[in-house]
Amino acid sequence: GENVEQHPSTLSVQEGDSAVIKCTYSDSASNYFPWYKQELGKRPQLIIDIRSNVGEKKDQRIAVTLNKTAKHFSLHITETQPEDSAVYFCAAHFIQNFVFGPGTRLSVLP
Amino acid sequence: NAGVMQNPRHLVRRRGQEARLRCSPMKGHSHVYWYRQLPEEGLKFMVYLQKENIIDESGMPKERFSAEFPKEGPSILRIQQVVRGDSAAYFCASSLDRQPQHFGDGTRLSIL
């Protein structure tokens, strides 16, 4: 069935450094890839998304890249801040539903 | 524009009871998705509904679980005869046209 893998499962960076989270998906028909940030006990919040007709998208300190041939996409956070600490989920849209990756716990150390 | 509203935020049930979780989508949104999240785990798709129709229920157990999204009123996820393993956070998301999805605050279901 459809599958989304996400790496790493945990990531610690120093404040000001960059963080990169990578995801791969199984169904080449997927055409939409959102990223969500979830703080402890709170709702997942959409932070950025990308569609399959675009290779890269940027929003201030956050960027997402997509390689359709290799079926992988990545989240890049630059100049990390303590408030970036959270669990990040990637997802891929498969026909009627979404499949989420298992999440990456990002810790930004002051 | 109010976000996705879920209630109750916390629900405690004893084994064998029924649990009803409600989700009011964002204004104008006709697509509703339900997800289940266990502690320290990702979001597992359960069911996708549009007004009065179940589009995809492939992630929902065949027994004890049901979902609806009536013409008027919120979407309901219903769990009959709850068991300990049903304890989880249940999130609802809505969208205008399948993408993007916006999530509610979730319902934390605890089974005693």
Describe the structure.
The complex is a heterodimer of chains A (110) and B (112). Chain A is an all-beta fold. Chain A has strands at residues 4-7, 10-14, 19-25, 32-38, 45-51, 56-59, 62-67, 72-77, 86-94, 97-100, 104-109. The mean pLDDT of chain A is 94. Helices cover 0% and strands 50% of the residues of chain B. Chain B has strands spanning 5-7, 10-13, 19-24, 31-37, 43-50, 53-56, 65-68, 75-79, 88-95, 102-103, 107-111. In chain B, a hairpin with a 6-residue loop joins strand 9 and strand 10. The mean pLDDT of chain B is 94. The interface between A and B is medium-sized, with 20 and 22 residues.
Mean pLDDT of chain B: 94
Distance between the termini of chain A: 41 Å
Low-pLDDT windows of residues of chain A: none
What is the distance, rounded to the nearest whole angstrom, between the alpha carbons of the first and last residues of chain B?
A: 37 Å
Average pLDDT, all residues of chain A: 94
Helix content of chain A: under 10%
Estimated share of beta-strand residues of chain B:
over 45%
Question: Can you tag this structure with a few keywords?
Answer:
heterodimer, A: mainly beta, five-stranded antiparallel sheet, globular, B: 112 residues, mainly beta, seven-stranded mixed sheet, four-stranded antiparallel sheet
What is shown here, in short?
The complex is a heterodimer of chains A (110) and B (112). Chain A has 110 residues and is mainly beta. Helices cover 0% and strands 59% of the residues of chain A.
Task: Show the helix and strand layout.
The complex is a heterodimer of chains A (110) and B (112).
Chain A: E1 4-7, E2 10-14, E3 19-25, E4 32-38, E5 45-51, E6 56-59, E7 62-67, E8 72-77, E9 86-94, E10 97-100, E11 104-109
Parallel strand pairs in A: 2-11
Antiparallel strand pairs in A: 1-3, 3-8, 4-5, 4-9, 6-7, 7-8, 9-10, 9-11
Chain B: E1 5-7, E2 10-13, E3 19-24, E4 31-37, E5 43-50, E6 53-56, E7 65-68, E8 75-79, E9 88-95, E10 102-103, E11 107-111
